[in-house]
Structures are given as structure tokens and as C-alpha cells.
Amino acid sequence: GSQCTISEIRVSAKGNQLLYNETGKAMIKKDLTLLAKEDVFHLIGKEWMLITSGTINRFNTMTASWGGIGWLWNKPVAYIFVRPERYTYEFIESGSRITLSFLGEQHRAILNLCGSKSGRDIDKVKETGLIPHETERGAVAFEQSRITLDCRTLFRAPMQECHFLDKEIHKRWYNDKPGGSLHMMYVLEIEDVYGL
Q1: Separation between Cα atoms, residue 58 and residue 65, nearest integer Å
Q2: What torsion do the CA atoms of 130, 133, 135, 141 make, to the nearest 10 degrees?
Q3: How many CB atoms lie within 10 A of CB 65?
């Protein structure tokens, strides 16, 4: 991954923490209610998201369109699903911080590339023009993101064929071909929300 650091952290007059990256664009720490204004079905299923894990010096990101946002264990949570063969999986398994970044429709080309190419083979930051920066908790976010959820992993569990009550779902989405393995499910606590 590329190296880009926050050059300045300030608090606005309204008490919002502002993260300024090297280009001077600010992402403002928002209240969780920002998500209440979003159609999360559209946000995840149609707009898609980048799942990113690692440190500002070494990270990977991937596109996902399956997941959810909700309330569990008296905490705001997101849940994501990542196949073990994905390069991002290695980063998730070796750390506890994950960001979910929603870039908006204008960045569809970035999402397409990050969902179809592996970070093992290409530098996604270089290829897409993504501008990474570090959140105050040490996670990786992107300047292009209109909403970023900075999360901590609470729970992980592998999917198992025997747990599918609807066998057609397993038959349709999982197989022994490359990219067909069962997902690892993660429940993430949403600790910070950033928006433009």
C-alpha cells in the first residue's frame, strides 16, 4: 500500500474532529445517526463498499456488496462476509481494525477494480488513484469515501454447509471452484463514523 498520513487533526467549532489529509480535504467525525439517513440496503447492495484492513504502511482493500448494519450486544455493528482466498482476509485475520468505506456511484470504476483484481498482483492504490489516510484509531480510510465506518472486530465464525437451511443458497453461491469457498463472517463494532 501507499504511504499517506494525516498532516493535521483539528476540532471544529461544533466539536467535530476533522481529519485533514495531505490534500487538505477534511473528513468529519459524525454521529452514528448519519447512518439512519441512509438506505442501508442500497448503500451495501447497490452502492457497494470497500472493506479495508491493515496499517497505513501495509493494507489491502476489497469490494463487497454483502453485509449489513444493525444493533447487537447493545452496540452498533456491521457484519461482513469475506472468503478465505481473498488477500484482504489475511489482513483481517492478523488485526482487529477494519474500515468500511462507501465511495458513491461516481467511483464505480474504483469499486469494480478492487472487486476484480487481487492486491497480491497489483497495487490497488496506484491503479485506482485511491488516496489513503490513517484514522485516529490507526485504521485506513480513503479520501474518496463519502462515509467511512471505523470498526473493531468483535466476533468471527466460518460458514459451514451443514448450517444452511436453504440448500439452494449453498448450491448457488458455493462450490469447489476458485472463488467459491464458504465465507468467514465477522461482526464489527462501529466505533467511529466519518463523512464529508
Answers
A1: 24
A2: 0
A3: 12
The 10s digit of each residue's pLDDT in 50-94 is 999 999 999 999 999 999 999 999 999 999 999 999 999 999 999
Separation of alpha carbons 114 and 112, rounded Å: 6
Distance CA 110, CA 121 (A): 16
Angle among Cα 143, 146, 151 to the nearest 5 degrees reads 85
Q: Give mean pLDDT, residues 176-181.
A: 85
Helix or strand or coil: residue 85?
coil
Measured in whole angstroms, the distance separating CA 30 from the mean position of its chain's CA atoms is 17
CB-based burial of residue 87 (10 Å sphere; 0-12 exposed, 13-18 middle, 19+ buried)? middle
* Residue 142: closest CA among 103, 183, 174: 103
Longest pairwise C-alpha distance within the chain: 55
CA dist., res. 53 & res. 97, Å (int):
6
83 Cβ contact partners less than 8 Å away, ≥ 6 residues apart: 89, 179, 181, 182, 183, 184
Q: What is the pTM for the complete model shown? A: 0.87
Residue 77 has, within 13 A of its CA and on its CB side, a CA count of 17
Percent of the chain's residues with pLDDT above 90: 78
